[in-house]
Amino acid sequence: MPMLHLTRELNNSFLSGGVRAAAIRVLITGIAIFLAVMIVPGLDVDSLPAGLAAILVLTILNVLVRPILFVLTLPLIVLSLGLFLIVVNALLLELTAYLVNGFSVTGFWPAVGGAVVISLVTTILNAWASDQRPKEPRAFPQRPPTIINPDE
Question: Average pLDDT of 27-47?
Fold first, then answer.
């Protein structure tokens, strides 16, 4: 019986961790960048490969560089009640434009506007895509109780 439970756990976890989460994160970032380019004047993408490169670079920067910037700017984030996170996101968007040919941000304020749109869209889509089902508790096999002194 425990083997059946282990097999069920393996089937439930297939593609639910790293690969699936990364693909969903890239897809959500892609939708957010597409909407930001469509809404915010000053954000431009020349071609589809440049847009795909911008999606991948911004996703990688959000995973690797954003936590470091978050820790370094934590006092400013606390003092501004979290509004400085928009500036951090705008800087990451400008760094993406610097690294990707064909993706351009014309200034700081378009970067701030794009960061706001991308942040809102990713927040909404991440909330929508997250799994809200309650986790089923782990079932440990029950062993019979041990009777210590049956004669007393």
Answer: 94
CB 45 within 8 A of CB 54: yes
- Name which residue leads in pLDDT, 118 or 5: 118
Closest among 85, 86, 92 to 65, alpha carbons compared: 92
Question: Strand pairing of 43-45 and 103-105?
Answer: antiparallel
Question: CB of 93 within 8 A of CB of 118?
Answer: yes
What integer is the mean pLDDT of 28-52?
94
Q: What is the largest CA-CA distance in the chain?
A: 87
pLDDT over 50 at 14, yes or no: no
In this structure, are residues 111 and 54 in contact, taking their beta carbons and an 8 Å threshold?
A: no
Give 122's contacts (C-beta < 8 A, 6+ positions apart). 28, 29, 32
